[in-house]
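Human: I hope this is not a bother. Would you mind checking the protein record under this note? Thank you for your patience.
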Amino acid sequence: MSLFERYIGIDYSGAETPNSPLKGLRVFHTEDLSKPDEVPPPSNRKYWSRREIAEWLVFELRKEIPTFVGIDHGFSFPLRYFDQHQLSLNWDTFLIDFQKHWPTDQNIYVDFVRNGAEGNGAARMGHSRWRRLTEERSIKAKSVFHFDVPGSVAKSTHAGLPWLLHIRHNLGDRIHFWPFDGWDIPEGRSVIAESYPALWSKDFPIEDRTQDQHDAFSIAAWVSRADHLEGLASLFTPKLSQADQATARIEGWILGV
């Protein structure tokens, strides 16, 4: 029996402001094993903005349809960040604290905070050598603090975290943020999980899609296939020691690692 009735893959971008329509923001959707379709923004603009994606997810996930949403950016930071800044080991507290220092849900660029023009990023910085356990296990995944290199998710992570807080505040326990809310998925619950399309994109021909489109497509297609044919539930309970499970409940985990 499948866990979900629909599957949404989102390729993310941390460019410009949260109100900017961005070519790198792509959303694909499927409800079964059929090929995922691209979802256009609800506005008349050609491309999504980060704000539109967050507000659209809040609207869609209020529906009583068990949905998987995979987003391509980090959902939390390494334990060294929590130690460095003397933060409690609590994901909700982390999100609130981060947004206060990195208000990237406002009409600013991520680089404005990095450069000290907005917010107080200097008080909540990390180091490019700090990696989460899931990044170490996935080998290819880069640190969430490794800015300005090809394949980096640092900027999209710093842009996207406040929007996870927005979704959480608006939807409460309607949504299971995995694995922060637990490894097991309650029956009938929608899930938002960190996804890394490089794990799956080679399983599908790129056809006429751009790389951004293909990354979002691959998340939706692969998770749908796994749920219908391969037993997706096992991916939500990776084989980790109790100590590593405790770490991942704070740092987050990439689905499929």
